[in-house]
TrEMBL record:
Residues 12-67 form the Acetyl-coenzyme A synthetase N-terminal domain. It comes from Erythrobacter rubeus. This is Acetyl-coenzyme A synthetase. Its cofactor is Mg(2+). Its EC number is 6.2.1.1. Residues 71-453 form the AMP-dependent synthetase/ligase domain. CoA binds at R178, G179, S180, K181, T297, N321, S509, R570. GO terms for molecular function: acetate-CoA ligase activity. SUPFAM superfamilies: Acetyl-CoA synthetase-like (SSF56801). It is an enzyme of class 6 (ligase).
Amino acid sequence: MKHATHCVAEQYQEMYRQSLEDPDGFWLDQAERLDWFKQPALGGEWSFDPASISWFADGSLNLCHNAVDRHLGTRGGDTAIIFEPDDPETAGRTLTYRELHAEVVRMANAMKAMGVAKGDRVTLYMPMIIEGVTAMLACARIGAVHSVVFGGFSPEALAGRIEDCGSRFVITADEGLRGSKRVPLKANVDAALAELDHETPLDGMLVVQHTGAAIEMTEGRDHWLHEIASDNDCPCEVMAAEDPLFILYTSGSTGKPKGVLHTTGGYGVWTATTFNYVFDYQPGEVYWCTADIGWVTGHSYIVYGPLMNGATSVVFEGVPNYPDHGRFWDVVDKHKVNILYTAPTAIRALMREGDEFVTSRDRSSLRLLGSVGEPINPEAWRWYHDVVGAGRCPIVDTWWQTETGGVMITTLPAAHDMKPGSAGLPFFGIQPQLVDNDGAVLEGAVEGNLCITASWPGQARSIYGDHERFEQTYFSTYTGKYFTGDGCKRDEDGYYWITGRVDDVINVSGHRMGTAEVESALVLHDLVAEAAVVGYPHDIKGQGIYCYVTLNAGIDGSDELYKALRAHVRKEIGPIATPDHIQFTDGLPKTRSGKIMRRILRKVAENDYGSLGDTSTLADPSLVDRLIEGRQNR
Ligand code: WT7
């Protein structure tokens, strides 16, 4: 049973039981799927009150060794990465594990030549190209802590993330490509650095030549990868299990984005184990996760999980609708993809274009389909299953979060029945609990707030530089429990149905956006007095961004200002934060003590006036009618 790849229902039950009865024994067993310099004897040592989490603390290992070097003897000639470029006419690239090793070593040597040392934070601002992956692995190799910032974030957002973790090094490319559009990555980094106060905000920048665009290089600071890379020996650093592996910024309900911190051993065991069981990966199969390495899905299930399992992982630079809406299925056919892992927002967008784009492609290589990032509506689920998978392929709907490191709730192929719209059952070691708003535990088939009661190896250890915020955010709402921020239903079969965020976070196209972040961006604009932002149901994106804005005295909300504000938010955060609607209003609904009643704003945005609830506590109850009248639906 140990390390079985196939896992049927009884095995799941038995293993799940073991994982709860003897978590240390269970996870120390699973830890054996990795190569350790020093095998751990310790399992989990943790508390949620106060929050202090460690796994395998006496072990040491290196995840680059596990993702790359350890395969050289057994499968050095097997394909590690298939790179599929944005433009299907451009030549792609395939890397064996041996070739991947050589590329990672070159990248690591270039980083060392710039002065990067163990423990240094390195910001990656990369397109979806092989060098994005090798830069992550090179950091892991030399013990540097990567902080990948999604290439779609603005220079302002990038600057904040460089500053927050005190990173002195950036790795980027001349430009990125997405749907034939060029993204000026290097120029964006320069603009970000100009935002920072210091005269010398960086010690070094490594630039990958990708499109060949002419860019400015700052003498002494900026280096072309191909000029300073070398093939010298570059051994993997010995890392303690609890040494940091990466920081990844994610939005919360308040304040600026949080640098979620993951460490080496627990994250490694969690991603390797979940990848194996969730995707039931078989040697030789081609696996494709369509995420970007700028998100946790890319970290765990494009890079670490698949490569630690010796899998073949597709790295796709493009978008689902370029050159046409059949691109995903072209890629599936071209590379004979067996396992596809994508997001409901992409499924809904493609579903809208009709079946022809799908059925005109072969897709017979597909064996298993995965969904991640947001609840998948049953209609999209059925289309994914019936049309994309031609009714042949099971779907794994995987619920998890940046903070959980890897999959937490899912059905397992061959072990469980699927229910469209339900993520399914807890993974090994995971103990979900539903509580009401007062923290009372709810049993049976019921709806409540989703908490996890016991630690698991892949759990985030802290928020970089702010452990107090870590405790506050996740462990203080329901003392002694990890609170996910999600609402959830449990049915009579014990299946979990995620209903969405219950905090002030909205999920736009599977990306988390803090309403507070968009609000702060809006009020930075000279003409804006106050702003309140809420989510509302959106056909394609899952949730859209709806903004209520009050303007400074004497200013009218014109069409021009509407456009200017949208552009302003894009500039401050990035295109993913672009408001869908901006409603200019003469006031925000506040209680007499000045608290904004977001419930009312949500209902108006949702076009759901029947259930506005009690509005009598508003300082100005007449405002509600004016809000309804001004509702935006452009
Ligand atoms: C939030 C986490 C998981 C990696 C990508 C997003 C929502 C995620 C599902 C799912 C319903 C889901 C939750 C969660 N979510 N997967 N299968 N079903 N909701 O990571 O940016 O940290 O966002 O995404 O609301 O809290 P993230």
